[in-house]
Write a structure and sequence with these properties.
By secondary structure, the protein is mainly α. The chain has one domain (3-61). 84% of the residues lie in helices and 0% in strands. The chain has helices spanning 3-26, 31-38, 42-61. Helix 1 packs antiparallel against helix 3 (42-61) and helix 2 (31-38) packs across helix 3. The longest helix is centred in the first third of the chain and has 24 residues, at 3-26.
């Protein structure tokens, strides 16, 4: 495997991890349960998790 292929696979892994995390949380698969646990509206909790996922994505690129 060449170094170019390793770099491409690394980027694909990072992006798929970030996309999967963003979709699972924000689309509501677990958002309702989390919002109920913290006694917050779903919109507030989804906003919080959107910023958390953005932070994770930024840290991946750094």
């Amino acid at each position: 495997m060449t170094n170019s292929n390793r770099i491409k696979l690394t980027w694909i892994s990072f992006l798929s991890y970030a996309l999967t995390g963003a979709l699972v949380i924000v689309t509501g698969m677990v958002m309702g349960n989390i919002a109920d646990y913290f006694n917050l509206p779903v919109s507030s909790m989804s906003n919080t998790f959107t910023f958390l996922n953005a932070g994770i994505l930024i840290s991946i690129f750094l």
